[in-house]
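The data layer described in this paper is built around a simple, fixed record for each protein. Such a record has a labelled line for the sequence and another for the backbone structure tokens. For reference, a complete record is included directly beneath this paragraph.
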Amino acid sequence: MTAVLICSHGDVKEDLGGTLLWREGIERQVATKMEEARMLAVAARPRMVVIDRDLPWAARIVTALREDPSTRGLSLVVMARGDFDAAEVELLECGANAILRLPAGPEWNERLERLMDVPVRKETRFPVSFGVEASSNGGDSANAQALNLSASGILIETEVALKMQDEVQLQFGLPVVIDPMRVAAQVVRLAAPSQFGMEFRRVGPEESRRIQGYLATLGA
């Protein structure tokens, strides 16, 4: 049976009852205090920890779980109510894999399934430097610079005004690949005023092969 740890002060069934977290075969453990969460993260051996953004100790539990070798590899998902909050940046910096915004829509299950299998933050990110064309919401393309790259995401620097959860079309060529590629990505991290961490959302098999091949030349 797959175990999931949920950190929240209240009952979250109303919020998450329609997601795969309430499917048969999922064992849910609930922690309302930080020390209880740390204990259950070790004892219950969950595949995923879901953390309420509004908990006063949300950032501290993310940091603690990332610093403990026995829990470092867990997928850490933050559920957030309402609009973007600056606390989300801190949570991502501390090591959260993703921010999922309530109410939970169909996209939740897609992302939860992926996060249960492969914690994104475990992937090696390599420093890079190459040009990227970025466009958001059907707007004109703007120049950007890639700063790091992994199999599942990219950090870019651009003057384009992007927000958390924005979907962006990226076009770029890799140093070992002549032809440019196009991928869709979503902003999941605000690293600096003009730097944005993005998770790839729609990548074709050929584009994925190219990225993996390039990472292999960097030592991935």
